[in-house]
Amino acid sequence: MEYPNLLPRFLKYVKVNTRSDEYSDRFPSTKRQDDFQKQVIMKDLEELGLSDIHYNKKSGCVIAEIPATVDYDVPVMGYLAHVDTADFNAENVKPIVHENYDGKSKIQLGDSDFYLDPEVFPNLRNYKGKTLITTSGDTLLGGDDKCGVAEVVTLAEYLLAHPEIKHGKIRIGFTPDEEIGTGAPRFDVEDFGAEFAFTLDGAAPGKLDWGTFSAATFALDIQGVNVHPSVAKDQMINAIQIGIDFQNQLPSAEVPEKTAGREGFFHLTHFEGTVDNARLEYIIRDFERDGLENRKNLVKEIVAKMNKEFGTERIKLTMRDQYYNMADELAKHMDIVNLAREAYHQEGLNEINEEPIRGGTDGGQLTYRGLPCPNLFSGQENMHGRYEYTVLESMYKAVDVLVRIAELNAEKNK
Ligand SMILES: [Zn+2]
Fold it and tell me: Are both 134 and 87 inside the same structural domain?
């Protein structure tokens, strides 16, 4: 159905710059996220009359409650969306609304030389007759994740206006610093007070994420021996060359640029050095926990073998796990995934796209911290740059799904 305040609310939110900053040492990483939380989100929630509205300082989150409309016990559920936007110009965002798109034309982004072209972005062809919201070409849109933010607030507005809709207690939360991965580790699961939740941070209608990569990172610090090249024979040990030799022992086809779908990889993200010393940084990704362990072991074996040949620890290896595939943990809570599946079906979304994401989500971290948390679509497309757009009808559908999940949760526990 249509929610008349959703579009104006979304347009208001995207105009506020809430970009996060991975080089900041404050938390949340930027003050502008806090300002948005306290001056915009909290105010809107107060106007709508939600309960228990508060700012949780530890986690940088605004949290609120939609009270239950049934008098029996229903497991408390939650909805989450992140307020920060990605690492791209977010100064002076000027969203443009294009009504009744013809499903085939190029869309000029404001007066800029940039176009949204269905040849390049074939998803556009799905949106004939729909209302698209785009950038004006020089900023991102911030639909990632202002779509989710506006949808959760609109859900609250709708449910408070319709007490005849039967649902249990719903907690809602607005989180900072998703794009730089520092928000979820600080999330206050206890204060949020839900048994399970959903993030709204996915792409087009039908997308349902409950599988992610498992991830680790490692670095090699290599100590060489630098002597003058004229007398280098049998004495010089070039740290750069050691780095190259290491890299060449990894499977050359298992890199991001040569893998897709369920294939994992090793990814050299940084390499700097001199003859004297060098540093290499990598990330490892795999959908299987065994696969991740095998990759880690391969790295350890290569390093051990090389150090043995040197007769000393020239290569120092540091390695740590980053996150695990949320599917492994959610497998114990499939009723939550099924709730979303059922809601999608009831809202006419019969083709559910459950392809695991080649990355992580806040929900993955939260799932391992005791708040099982699949990720729902929010209608954002082409995230993280000037080609970002969203479709108003996708956003309406997202709110429909949120209402439906809440109703199903109450029905199932009657
Ligand atoms: Zn996002």
Answer: yes
pLDDT 10s digits, 87-107: 999 999 999 999 999 999 999
Give the torsion sign (CA, 209, 261, 22, 289).
Answer: positive
CATH of the domain at 37: 3.40.630.10
Q: How far is the CA of 362 from the centre of ligand 1 (A)?
A: 9
Q: For the chain, how many structural domains are there in total?
A: 2
Rounded Cα distance between 3 and 43, Å, is 20
pLDDT tens string 296-342: 999 999 999 999 999 999 999 999 998 899 999 999 999 999 999 99
Tell me the CA–centroid distance for residue 377 and ligand 1, in Å: 10
Residue 80 above 90 pLDDT?
yes
Show Cβ contacts of residue 400 under 8 Å, excluding neighbours closer than 6 positions: 1, 347
Range of the domain at 127: 6-211+325-412
Tell me, yes or no, if 281 is annotated catalytic.
Answer: no
Q: Is 178 a catalytic residue?
A: yes
Compute the distance from residue 201 Cα to the ligand 1 centre, in Å: 5
Dihedral angle over CA of 402, 362, 201, 215, nearest 10: -130
310 with 205, same domain: the answer is: no
- The mean pLDDT value of the chain amounts to 96
CA of 338 to the centre of ligand 1 (A): 23
Q: Do both 285 and 159 map to the same domain?
A: no
Q: 154 lies in a domain?
A: yes
- 250-287 tens-digit pLDDT: 999 999 999 999 999 999 999 999 999 999 999 999 99
Question: Residue 47 is encoded by which pair of tokens?
Answer: 């106007």
Q: Are residues 196 and 76 both part of a single domain?
A: yes
Same domain, 13 and 146: yes
User: pTM, whole model, 2 decimals?
Assistant: 0.88
Nearest one of 16, 13, 28 to 60, comparing CA atoms = 28
The single residue of 44, 84, 145, 286 carrying the catalytic annotation is 84
